[in-house]
């Protein structure tokens, strides 16, 4: 085991913090795997799936499957699983499309 000084550890931590700050978009909040959000419109960003109860591939979304499993349905029982089926709330004012989406992590090729 190599003994390091407090100054060396502090310097390493400051470098790690600087790298993390460069990777994040200012004001952005990193979503949690399985987190549900509501968006205006009906096109989810990449790594998000519309939460409409559909069956999705276990092989393509392994991290999400690991997180929620068959809680919302077993899909075909072997290669797919279901995401939650969430309906948009009734909003006041003129009709506008809103969609619930679930963060699925990176798509597995």
Short characterization:
The protein is an alpha+beta fold. The chain has 2 helices and 5 strands; from the N terminus they run αβββαββ.
What characteristics describe this protein?
109 residues, alpha+beta, heat- and protease-stable fragment of the bacteriophage t4 short fibre, domain 3, three-stranded antiparallel sheet, two-stranded antiparallel ribbon, 2 helices, 18% strand
Description of the molecule:
- This protein is of the alpha+beta class and 109 residues long.
- It has a domain of 73 residues: heat- and protease-stable fragment of the bacteriophage t4 short fibre, domain 3.
- The protein has two helices and five strands; from the N terminus they run αβββαββ.
- The strands form two sheets. A three-stranded antiparallel β-sheet has the order 1-5-2, with no helix packed on it. Strands 3-4 form a two-stranded antiparallel sheet.
- The model has no long low-confidence stretch (mean pLDDT 79).
């Amino acid at each position: 085991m190599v003994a390091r000084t407090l100054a060396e550890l502090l310097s390493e931590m400051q470098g790690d913090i600087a790298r993390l700050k460069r990777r994040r978009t200012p004001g952005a909040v990193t979503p949690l795997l399985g987190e549900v959000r509501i968006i205006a419109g009906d096109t989810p960003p990449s790594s998000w799936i519309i939460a409409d109860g559909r069956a999705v591939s276990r092989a393509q979304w392994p991290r999400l499957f690991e997180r929620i499993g068959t809680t919302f349905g077993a899909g075909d029982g072997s290669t797919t699983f279901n995401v939650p089926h969430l309906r948009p709330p009734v909003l006041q004012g003129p009709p506008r499309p809103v969609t619930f989406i679930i963060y699925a992590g990176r798509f597995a090729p």
